[in-house]
Design brief:
- The protein has eight helices and no strands.
- The protein has 131 residues and is mainly α.
- The radius of gyration is 13 Å and the shape is globular.
- The relative contact order is 0.15.
């Protein structure tokens, strides 16, 4: 999926214009990149358009933070109201699951704790399965 299509899908799901959808995707990917291992971030980046995959790059060990912190970080960067953040993040994960292989998405989701399930709108942790 090219970046224009990916961003367009996020815009469709959120109602955001192109610039805001791009900002949301980039903020979500940057935050996700700090939450998962560098190797997994690189694997995910390899399946995304280069301009978006670059948002996942990091060299340090993953930071372990709860979904509320993930949501807060994305909301602060975009910015979004608290009630907008969770549905917007879910939209990004929905589109990511359309854009990358099922196996890759499962690996990414497995690195998030089971408490992330409600935020991302799909099974996470050890129960990560993408339909």
């Amino acid at each position: 999926m090219d970046s224009r299509h990916l961003l367009g899908r996020v815009g469709e799901l959120t109602g955001f214009d192109g610039d805001r959808a791009e900002h949301l995707v980039r903020a979500t990917l940057v935050t996700l990149g700090t939450r998962i291992s560098p190797g997994e971030a690189n694997d995910l980046a390899a399946q995304l358009p280069n301009s978006l995959g670059a948002c996942l790059e990091h060299e340090s060990e993953p930071s372990r933070f709860h979904p509320e912190e993930f949501q807060r970080r994305v909301a602060r960067i975009v910015p979004l109201a608290n009630d907008q953040a969770a549905p917007a993040i879910r939209a990004v994960f929905t589109v990511l699951s359309e854009a990358v292989s099922e196996g890759e998405m499962r690996q990414v989701l497995s690195q998030l704790g089971s408490e992330y399930e409600r935020l991302v709108g799909m099974p996470t942790g050890r129960h990560a399965v993408v339909s």
